[in-house]
Protein backbone atom coordinates (compact mmCIF):
# COMPACT_ATOMS: atom_id res chain seq x y z
CA UNK A 1 0.00 0.00 0.00
CA UNK A 2 1.31 3.47 -0.86
CA UNK A 3 2.33 5.42 2.18
CA UNK A 4 1.07 8.94 1.67
CA UNK A 5 2.08 11.25 4.48
CA UNK A 6 1.16 14.93 4.67
CA UNK A 7 1.98 17.24 7.58
CA UNK A 8 -0.10 20.38 8.10
CA UNK A 9 2.17 22.64 10.12
CA UNK A 10 3.44 26.15 10.83
CA UNK A 11 7.14 26.97 10.85
CA UNK A 12 7.33 28.53 14.33
CA UNK A 13 5.25 25.91 16.10
CA UNK A 14 7.24 23.88 18.62
CA UNK A 15 4.43 21.33 18.40
CA UNK A 16 4.70 21.03 14.64
CA UNK A 17 8.47 20.69 14.98
CA UNK A 18 7.95 17.57 17.10
CA UNK A 19 6.21 15.85 14.20
CA UNK A 20 8.95 16.99 11.81
CA UNK A 21 11.69 15.55 14.05
CA UNK A 22 9.85 12.23 14.52
CA UNK A 23 9.29 11.84 10.77
CA UNK A 24 12.97 12.67 10.11
CA UNK A 25 14.14 10.20 12.78
CA UNK A 26 12.21 7.45 11.03
CA UNK A 27 13.33 8.56 7.55
CA UNK A 28 9.74 8.98 6.39
CA UNK A 29 9.09 10.92 3.21
CA UNK A 30 6.25 13.36 3.53
CA UNK A 31 4.71 16.47 2.08
CA UNK A 32 5.07 19.51 4.33
CA UNK A 33 2.29 22.10 4.06
CA UNK A 34 2.68 25.45 5.77
CA UNK A 35 -0.62 26.70 7.18
CA UNK A 36 -1.54 30.37 7.42
CA UNK A 37 -2.96 30.40 10.93
CA UNK A 38 -4.68 33.74 10.30
CA UNK A 39 -6.46 32.25 7.32
CA UNK A 40 -6.89 28.54 7.97
CA UNK A 41 -7.19 26.31 4.92
CA UNK A 42 -10.13 24.03 4.12
CA UNK A 43 -8.03 20.93 4.55
CA UNK A 44 -6.99 21.88 8.10
CA UNK A 45 -10.58 22.68 9.06
CA UNK A 46 -11.70 19.35 7.61
CA UNK A 47 -8.90 17.29 9.17
CA UNK A 48 -9.07 18.92 12.61
CA UNK A 49 -12.62 20.25 12.97
CA UNK A 50 -12.48 19.99 16.79
CA UNK A 51 -9.48 22.23 17.51
CA UNK A 52 -8.67 23.65 14.04
CA UNK A 53 -4.99 23.52 15.04
CA UNK A 54 -1.71 22.31 13.61
CA UNK A 55 0.09 19.98 13.52
CA UNK A 56 -2.09 17.44 11.77
CA UNK A 57 -0.52 14.33 10.29
CA UNK A 58 -2.53 12.91 7.42
CA UNK A 59 -1.56 9.30 6.74
CA UNK A 60 -3.22 7.77 3.69
CA UNK A 61 -6.00 10.32 4.03
CA UNK A 62 -6.63 9.74 7.75
CA UNK A 63 -5.85 12.61 10.18
CA UNK A 64 -3.95 12.29 13.46
CA UNK A 65 -4.02 15.38 15.69
CA UNK A 66 -2.11 16.59 18.77
CA UNK A 67 1.69 16.57 18.55
CA UNK A 68 2.46 13.96 21.23
CA UNK A 69 -0.24 11.67 19.87
CA UNK A 70 1.27 12.14 16.38
CA UNK A 71 4.77 11.23 17.62
CA UNK A 72 3.45 8.09 19.33
CA UNK A 73 1.48 7.17 16.19
CA UNK A 74 4.61 7.56 14.05
CA UNK A 75 6.53 5.39 16.52
CA UNK A 76 3.85 2.67 16.47
CA UNK A 77 3.35 2.56 12.70
CA UNK A 78 7.01 2.79 11.68
CA UNK A 79 8.18 0.55 14.49
CA UNK A 80 11.11 -1.10 12.73
CA UNK A 81 13.39 1.91 12.81
CA UNK A 82 14.67 4.32 15.48
CA UNK A 83 12.29 3.53 18.38
CA UNK A 84 11.22 6.76 20.06
CA UNK A 85 9.58 5.33 23.17
CA UNK A 86 11.22 2.73 25.42
CA UNK A 87 9.89 -0.83 25.24
CA UNK A 88 9.48 -1.20 29.01
CA UNK A 89 5.98 -0.12 30.19
CA UNK A 90 7.29 1.71 33.26
CA UNK A 91 9.88 3.63 31.23
CA UNK A 92 7.16 4.45 28.71
CA UNK A 93 4.94 5.82 31.47
CA UNK A 94 7.85 7.97 32.66
CA UNK A 95 8.53 9.26 29.15
CA UNK A 96 4.87 10.14 28.60
CA UNK A 97 4.75 11.85 32.00
CA UNK A 98 7.70 14.13 31.27
CA UNK A 99 6.48 14.98 27.78
CA UNK A 100 3.14 15.92 29.37
CA UNK A 101 5.07 18.00 31.94
CA UNK A 102 6.68 19.98 29.11
CA UNK A 103 3.21 20.74 27.73
CA UNK A 104 1.70 21.63 31.09
CA UNK A 105 4.54 23.67 32.60
CA UNK A 106 7.13 24.79 30.04
CA UNK A 107 4.75 25.84 27.27
CA UNK A 108 2.45 27.81 29.55
CA UNK A 109 5.18 29.72 31.39
CA UNK A 110 7.08 30.34 28.14
CA UNK A 111 4.00 31.74 26.47
CA UNK A 112 3.38 34.07 29.37
CA UNK A 113 6.95 35.39 29.06
CA UNK A 114 6.60 36.49 25.45
CA UNK A 115 3.03 37.75 25.63
CA UNK A 116 2.98 39.83 28.81
CA UNK A 117 3.86 43.52 28.94
CA UNK A 118 6.18 43.18 31.89
CA UNK A 119 6.22 43.83 35.61
CA UNK A 120 5.01 41.26 38.14
CA UNK A 121 3.35 39.08 35.52
CA UNK A 122 6.62 38.73 33.62
CA UNK A 123 8.63 38.01 36.76
CA UNK A 124 6.14 35.32 37.81
CA UNK A 125 6.27 33.74 34.33
CA UNK A 126 10.08 33.74 34.37
CA UNK A 127 10.15 32.16 37.81
CA UNK A 128 7.78 29.37 36.71
CA UNK A 129 9.66 28.87 33.46
CA UNK A 130 13.09 28.59 35.06
CA UNK A 131 11.72 26.32 37.78
CA UNK A 132 10.26 23.93 35.21
CA UNK A 133 13.52 23.91 33.25
CA UNK A 134 15.47 23.12 36.41
CA UNK A 135 13.16 20.18 37.11
CA UNK A 136 13.81 18.87 33.61
CA UNK A 137 17.55 19.42 34.01
CA UNK A 138 17.32 17.24 37.12
CA UNK A 139 15.49 14.56 35.17
CA UNK A 140 18.17 14.59 32.47
CA UNK A 141 20.85 14.05 35.11
CA UNK A 142 24.13 12.88 33.63
CA UNK A 143 22.65 11.04 30.67
CA UNK A 144 23.26 12.37 27.17
CA UNK A 145 19.52 12.37 26.39
CA UNK A 146 16.22 12.19 28.25
CA UNK A 147 15.87 8.84 26.50
CA UNK A 148 19.08 7.73 28.25
CA UNK A 149 21.83 6.74 25.85
CA UNK A 150 19.60 7.36 22.85
CA UNK A 151 17.49 10.27 21.65
CA UNK A 152 13.82 9.62 22.36
CA UNK A 153 10.28 10.79 23.04
CA UNK A 154 11.00 13.35 25.78
CA UNK A 155 13.95 14.74 23.82
CA UNK A 156 11.61 15.29 20.86
CA UNK A 157 8.91 16.80 23.10
CA UNK A 158 11.30 19.32 24.66
CA UNK A 159 14.08 20.11 22.17
CA UNK A 160 11.68 21.94 19.87
CA UNK A 161 11.26 24.59 22.57
CA UNK A 162 14.97 25.41 22.21
CA UNK A 163 14.24 27.45 19.07
CA UNK A 164 12.14 29.67 21.31
CA UNK A 165 14.80 30.08 24.01
CA UNK A 166 16.30 33.19 22.42
CA UNK A 167 12.88 34.85 22.25
CA UNK A 168 12.09 33.95 25.88
CA UNK A 169 15.52 35.20 27.03
CA UNK A 170 15.15 38.45 25.15
CA UNK A 171 11.61 39.16 26.36
CA UNK A 172 12.46 38.17 29.89
CA UNK A 173 16.00 39.53 30.07
CA UNK A 174 17.64 36.39 31.39
CA UNK A 175 19.97 33.64 30.20
CA UNK A 176 18.89 30.02 30.09
CA UNK A 177 22.53 28.94 29.80
CA UNK A 178 23.32 30.65 33.12
CA UNK A 179 20.29 29.07 34.82
CA UNK A 180 20.49 25.60 33.25
CA UNK A 181 23.89 24.97 31.62
CA UNK A 182 23.35 21.20 31.30
CA UNK A 183 20.18 21.78 29.31
CA UNK A 184 21.99 24.00 26.82
CA UNK A 185 24.65 21.28 26.45
CA UNK A 186 21.84 18.82 25.79
CA UNK A 187 20.31 21.17 23.18
CA UNK A 188 23.65 21.40 21.36
CA UNK A 189 23.97 17.62 21.47
CA UNK A 190 20.51 17.22 19.96
CA UNK A 191 21.25 19.82 17.29
CA UNK A 192 24.14 17.63 16.09
CA UNK A 193 21.48 15.23 14.85
CA UNK A 194 20.28 16.06 11.35
CA UNK A 195 16.72 15.07 12.21
CA UNK A 196 16.69 17.91 14.74
CA UNK A 197 18.80 20.60 13.02
CA UNK A 198 16.88 20.28 9.75
CA UNK A 199 13.49 20.36 11.50
CA UNK A 200 14.01 23.40 13.71
CA UNK A 201 13.95 26.95 12.29
CA UNK A 202 16.59 29.56 13.14
CA UNK A 203 15.84 31.07 16.58
CA UNK A 204 16.04 34.53 14.99
CA UNK A 205 13.03 33.66 12.86
CA UNK A 206 11.15 32.94 16.08
CA UNK A 207 12.28 36.31 17.46
CA UNK A 208 10.93 37.90 14.26
CA UNK A 209 7.60 36.17 14.77
CA UNK A 210 7.42 37.21 18.43
CA UNK A 211 8.46 40.82 17.69
CA UNK A 212 5.78 41.09 15.00
CA UNK A 213 3.16 39.65 17.33
CA UNK A 214 4.14 41.99 20.16
CA UNK A 215 4.04 45.03 17.90
CA UNK A 216 0.63 44.03 16.59
CA UNK A 217 -0.73 43.56 20.11
CA UNK A 218 0.86 46.71 21.51
CA UNK A 219 3.06 44.80 23.94
CA UNK A 220 6.30 46.53 22.93
CA UNK A 221 9.12 45.16 20.82
CA UNK A 222 12.15 46.62 22.64
CA UNK A 223 15.14 44.30 22.66
CA UNK A 224 13.60 42.02 20.07
CA UNK A 225 14.01 44.69 17.40
CA UNK A 226 17.74 43.92 17.48
CA UNK A 227 17.08 40.48 16.08
CA UNK A 228 15.00 41.56 13.17
CA UNK A 229 18.01 43.00 11.38
CA UNK A 230 20.87 40.93 12.73
CA UNK A 231 20.03 37.45 11.50
CA UNK A 232 23.61 36.61 10.66
CA UNK A 233 24.95 37.10 14.19
CA UNK A 234 26.08 34.00 15.98
CA UNK A 235 24.97 33.32 19.51
CA UNK A 236 27.92 35.01 21.25
CA UNK A 237 27.49 38.21 19.27
CA UNK A 238 23.77 38.19 20.06
CA UNK A 239 24.49 38.14 23.77
CA UNK A 240 26.94 41.06 23.49
CA UNK A 241 24.64 43.11 21.30
CA UNK A 242 21.73 42.40 23.59
CA UNK A 243 23.77 43.55 26.56
CA UNK A 244 24.28 46.95 24.93
CA UNK A 245 20.59 47.52 24.28
CA UNK A 246 18.24 49.31 26.60
CA UNK A 247 14.61 50.28 26.33
CA UNK B 1 1.23 -11.02 49.17
CA UNK B 2 -0.02 -10.28 45.67
CA UNK B 3 -2.13 -7.29 46.75
CA UNK B 4 0.92 -5.51 48.14
CA UNK B 5 2.59 -5.44 44.73
CA UNK B 6 0.11 -2.80 43.63
CA UNK B 7 -0.96 0.18 45.68
CA UNK B 8 -3.22 3.05 44.75
CA UNK B 9 -3.11 6.37 46.55
CA UNK B 10 -6.30 8.28 45.81
CA UNK B 11 -9.22 10.33 47.07
CA UNK B 12 -12.65 8.67 47.41
CA UNK B 13 -14.37 11.35 45.28
CA UNK B 14 -11.68 11.78 42.62
CA UNK B 15 -12.91 10.86 39.12
CA UNK B 16 -9.23 10.49 38.13
CA UNK B 17 -8.86 7.84 40.83
CA UNK B 18 -12.12 6.07 39.96
CA UNK B 19 -11.05 5.35 36.41
CA UNK B 20 -7.85 3.71 37.69
CA UNK B 21 -9.82 1.58 40.17
CA UNK B 22 -12.20 0.47 37.43
CA UNK B 23 -9.24 -0.52 35.24
CA UNK B 24 -7.62 -2.48 38.07
CA UNK B 25 -10.89 -4.28 38.82
CA UNK B 26 -11.67 -5.01 35.14
CA UNK B 27 -8.22 -6.55 34.78
CA UNK B 28 -8.60 -8.52 38.01
CA UNK B 29 -5.56 -6.89 39.61
CA UNK B 30 -5.45 -7.01 43.39
CA UNK B 31 -4.33 -3.80 45.00
CA UNK B 32 -4.11 -1.96 48.28
CA UNK B 33 -6.09 1.27 48.39
CA UNK B 34 -4.69 4.18 50.41
CA UNK B 35 -6.99 7.13 51.06
CA UNK B 36 -5.41 10.59 50.77
CA UNK B 37 -6.67 13.78 52.39
CA UNK B 38 -6.03 16.35 49.67
CA UNK B 39 -6.63 19.24 52.07
CA UNK B 40 -3.88 17.96 54.30
CA UNK B 41 -1.47 16.25 51.93
CA UNK B 42 0.55 13.43 53.38
CA UNK B 43 4.34 13.09 53.29
CA UNK B 44 3.76 10.00 51.20
CA UNK B 45 1.93 11.91 48.46
CA UNK B 46 4.46 14.76 48.45
CA UNK B 47 7.26 12.21 48.21
CA UNK B 48 5.65 10.15 45.46
CA UNK B 49 4.38 13.07 43.39
CA UNK B 50 6.54 16.10 44.19
CA UNK B 51 5.90 17.62 40.76
CA UNK B 52 2.11 17.87 40.80
CA UNK B 53 1.25 16.76 44.38
CA UNK B 54 -1.92 15.12 43.09
CA UNK B 55 -3.76 11.81 43.24
CA UNK B 56 -4.08 9.20 41.91
CA UNK B 57 -0.65 7.65 42.34
CA UNK B 58 -0.08 4.04 41.36
CA UNK B 59 2.78 2.17 42.97
CA UNK B 60 3.79 -1.11 41.36
CA UNK B 61 6.70 -3.03 42.90
CA UNK B 62 7.84 0.25 44.42
CA UNK B 63 7.76 2.12 41.08
CA UNK B 64 5.57 5.20 40.86
CA UNK B 65 3.24 5.90 37.94
CA UNK B 66 1.40 9.23 37.78
CA UNK B 67 -1.45 10.84 35.79
CA UNK B 68 -4.59 8.73 35.55
CA UNK B 69 -4.70 8.39 31.75
CA UNK B 70 -1.03 7.36 31.73
CA UNK B 71 -1.76 4.88 34.52
CA UNK B 72 -4.49 3.32 32.34
CA UNK B 73 -1.99 2.89 29.49
CA UNK B 74 0.56 1.39 31.90
CA UNK B 75 -2.00 -1.07 33.29
CA UNK B 76 -2.99 -2.03 29.76
CA UNK B 77 0.62 -2.75 28.84
CA UNK B 78 1.34 -4.78 32.00
CA UNK B 79 -1.89 -6.76 32.30
CA UNK B 80 -3.27 -8.23 29.09
CA UNK B 81 -6.64 -9.28 30.55
CA UNK B 82 -9.55 -7.07 29.48
CA UNK B 83 -7.65 -4.92 26.97
CA UNK B 84 -8.58 -1.25 27.26
CA UNK B 85 -6.91 0.41 24.28
CA UNK B 86 -7.31 -0.63 20.64
CA UNK B 87 -4.40 -2.47 19.01
CA UNK B 88 -4.48 -0.49 15.78
CA UNK B 89 -2.25 2.64 15.98
CA UNK B 90 -4.82 4.85 14.24
CA UNK B 91 -7.67 3.74 16.52
CA UNK B 92 -5.35 4.26 19.48
CA UNK B 93 -4.57 7.81 18.33
CA UNK B 94 -8.31 8.53 18.09
CA UNK B 95 -9.09 7.38 21.64
CA UNK B 96 -6.07 9.25 23.02
CA UNK B 97 -7.30 12.38 21.22
CA UNK B 98 -10.81 12.17 22.67
CA UNK B 99 -9.51 11.32 26.16
CA UNK B 100 -7.32 14.45 26.07
CA UNK B 101 -10.26 16.47 24.76
CA UNK B 102 -12.53 15.20 27.54
CA UNK B 103 -9.91 16.04 30.13
CA UNK B 104 -9.04 19.54 28.95
CA UNK B 105 -12.43 20.74 27.71
CA UNK B 106 -14.95 18.94 29.92
CA UNK B 107 -13.65 17.34 33.11
CA UNK B 108 -11.26 20.05 34.28
CA UNK B 109 -13.45 23.07 33.48
CA UNK B 110 -16.73 21.29 34.36
CA UNK B 111 -16.94 21.87 38.09
CA UNK B 112 -15.55 25.44 37.88
CA UNK B 113 -18.23 26.23 35.26
CA UNK B 114 -21.09 24.72 37.24
CA UNK B 115 -20.10 26.36 40.51
CA UNK B 116 -19.77 29.83 38.98
CA UNK B 117 -22.54 32.43 38.97
CA UNK B 118 -24.42 34.79 36.68
CA UNK B 119 -22.97 35.88 33.32
CA UNK B 120 -19.71 34.05 33.97
CA UNK B 121 -21.63 30.80 34.44
CA UNK B 122 -23.79 31.33 31.37
CA UNK B 123 -20.76 32.00 29.20
CA UNK B 124 -18.80 29.04 30.61
CA UNK B 125 -21.70 26.62 30.26
CA UNK B 126 -22.44 27.67 26.68
CA UNK B 127 -18.89 26.74 25.62
CA UNK B 128 -18.93 23.63 27.77
CA UNK B 129 -22.13 22.33 26.20
CA UNK B 130 -20.74 22.96 22.71
CA UNK B 131 -17.82 20.72 23.64
CA UNK B 132 -20.12 18.07 25.13
CA UNK B 133 -21.97 18.01 21.79
CA UNK B 134 -18.72 16.86 20.18
CA UNK B 135 -18.68 13.86 22.53
CA UNK B 136 -22.32 13.18 21.64
CA UNK B 137 -21.27 13.14 18.01
CA UNK B 138 -18.36 10.79 18.69
CA UNK B 139 -20.64 8.35 20.52
CA UNK B 140 -23.42 8.26 17.90
CA UNK B 141 -24.33 4.73 16.82
CA UNK B 142 -21.99 3.10 19.32
CA UNK B 143 -22.91 1.04 22.35
CA UNK B 144 -19.80 2.18 24.19
CA UNK B 145 -16.89 4.41 23.16
CA UNK B 146 -14.92 1.16 23.00
CA UNK B 147 -17.49 -0.49 20.69
CA UNK B 148 -19.21 -3.59 22.03
CA UNK B 149 -17.40 -3.50 25.38
CA UNK B 150 -16.16 -0.71 27.60
CA UNK B 151 -12.62 0.49 27.02
CA UNK B 152 -10.12 3.23 27.74
CA UNK B 153 -12.30 6.05 26.47
CA UNK B 154 -15.35 4.85 28.43
CA UNK B 155 -13.23 4.88 31.59
CA UNK B 156 -11.86 8.33 30.68
CA UNK B 157 -15.40 9.68 30.14
CA UNK B 158 -16.98 7.65 32.94
CA UNK B 159 -17.29 10.67 35.25
CA UNK B 160 -20.07 12.00 32.98
CA UNK B 161 -22.33 9.16 34.07
CA UNK B 162 -22.20 9.62 37.84
CA UNK B 163 -20.40 12.87 38.70
CA UNK B 164 -21.94 15.28 36.21
CA UNK B 165 -25.47 14.64 37.59
CA UNK B 166 -24.18 15.55 41.08
CA UNK B 167 -22.60 18.76 39.74
CA UNK B 168 -25.88 19.55 37.99
CA UNK B 169 -27.80 19.14 41.24
CA UNK B 170 -25.38 21.14 43.39
CA UNK B 171 -24.83 23.77 40.70
CA UNK B 172 -28.57 24.01 39.97
CA UNK B 173 -28.23 23.55 36.21
CA UNK B 174 -29.50 20.91 33.81
CA UNK B 175 -27.07 19.99 31.09
CA UNK B 176 -27.66 16.34 30.23
CA UNK B 177 -31.05 16.77 28.58
CA UNK B 178 -31.88 13.32 27.09
CA UNK B 179 -33.45 15.02 24.06
CA UNK B 180 -30.28 16.99 23.36
CA UNK B 181 -27.88 14.18 24.29
CA UNK B 182 -29.61 10.88 23.42
CA UNK B 183 -26.38 8.97 22.77
CA UNK B 184 -24.71 10.08 26.01
CA UNK B 185 -27.92 9.31 27.92
CA UNK B 186 -28.10 5.78 26.47
CA UNK B 187 -24.39 5.24 27.10
CA UNK B 188 -24.72 6.43 30.73
CA UNK B 189 -27.36 3.79 31.41
CA UNK B 190 -25.29 0.98 29.88
CA UNK B 191 -22.06 2.15 31.52
CA UNK B 192 -23.59 2.35 34.99
CA UNK B 193 -25.10 -1.12 34.66
CA UNK B 194 -21.74 -2.74 33.96
CA UNK B 195 -21.12 -4.99 37.00
CA UNK B 196 -17.64 -3.58 37.75
CA UNK B 197 -18.70 0.05 37.39
CA UNK B 198 -21.92 -0.42 39.36
CA UNK B 199 -20.00 -1.91 42.31
CA UNK B 200 -17.33 0.78 42.29
CA UNK B 201 -19.00 4.14 42.48
CA UNK B 202 -18.77 6.62 45.34
CA UNK B 203 -22.03 7.07 47.31
CA UNK B 204 -24.16 9.74 45.64
CA UNK B 205 -25.35 11.40 48.84
CA UNK B 206 -21.79 11.64 50.12
CA UNK B 207 -20.75 13.27 46.79
CA UNK B 208 -23.58 15.81 47.06
CA UNK B 209 -22.47 16.76 50.57
CA UNK B 210 -18.86 17.09 49.38
CA UNK B 211 -19.68 19.37 46.44
CA UNK B 212 -22.16 21.43 48.45
CA UNK B 213 -19.34 22.11 50.86
CA UNK B 214 -16.92 22.98 48.03
CA UNK B 215 -19.34 25.42 46.42
CA UNK B 216 -19.36 27.47 49.65
CA UNK B 217 -15.57 27.76 49.68
CA UNK B 218 -13.50 30.02 47.37
CA UNK B 219 -12.44 28.01 44.34
CA UNK B 220 -9.02 26.36 44.22
CA UNK B 221 -8.04 23.89 41.54
CA UNK B 222 -7.26 20.79 43.66
Automatic annotation (TrEMBL), chain A:
Highest taxon in the source lineage: Eukaryota
Domain GST N-terminal: 3-82
CDD domains named in the record: GST_C_Tau, GST_N_Tau
Catalysed reactions listed for this entry: RX + glutathione = an S-substituted glutathione + a halide anion + H(+)
GO cellular component: cytoplasm
Alphabetized GO MF terms: glutathione transferase activity
Known EC number: 2.5.1.18
Swiss-Prot/TrEMBL GO biological process terms: glutathione metabolic process
Pfam families named among the record's database cross-references: GST_C (PF00043), GST_N (PF02798)
Keywords: Transferase
Domain GST C-terminal: 88-209
Similarity section: Belongs to the GST superfamily.
Name the UniProt record assigns to this protein: glutathione transferase
Species for this entry: Nyssa sinensis
Automatic annotation (TrEMBL), chain B:
Gene3D superfamilies per UniProt: 1.20.1050.10, Glutaredoxin (3.40.30.10)
GST N-terminal domain sequence ranges: 4-83
EC code: 2.5.1.18
UniProt-recorded Gene Ontology molecular function terms: glutathione transferase activity
GO terms for biological process, alphabetical: glutathione metabolic process
Class of the enzyme per the UniProt entry, highest EC level: transferase
Keyword terms: Transferase
Pfam families documented for this protein: GST_C (PF00043), GST_N (PF02798)
GST C-terminal domain: residues covered: 88-219
GO cellular component: cytoplasm
Catalytic activity: RX + glutathione = an S-substituted glutathione + a halide anion + H(+)
Protein family: Belongs to the GST superfamily. HSP26 family.
Protein's recorded name: Probable glutathione S-transferase
Amino acid sequence: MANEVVLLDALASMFGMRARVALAEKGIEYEYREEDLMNKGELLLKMNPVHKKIPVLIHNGKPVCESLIIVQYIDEVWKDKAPLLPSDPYQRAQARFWADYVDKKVYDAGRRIWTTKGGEELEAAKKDFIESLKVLEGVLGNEPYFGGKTFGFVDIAFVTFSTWFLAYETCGNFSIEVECPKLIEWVKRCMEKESVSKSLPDPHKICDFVATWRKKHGVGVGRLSAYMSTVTLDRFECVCFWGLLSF
Amino acid sequence: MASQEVKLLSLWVSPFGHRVEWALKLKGVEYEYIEEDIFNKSHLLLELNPVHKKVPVLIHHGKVILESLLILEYLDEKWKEFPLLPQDPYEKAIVRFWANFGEAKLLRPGWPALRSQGDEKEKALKLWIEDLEKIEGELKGKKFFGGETIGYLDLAMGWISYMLPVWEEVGCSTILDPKKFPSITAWTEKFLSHPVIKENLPPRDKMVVWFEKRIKEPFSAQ
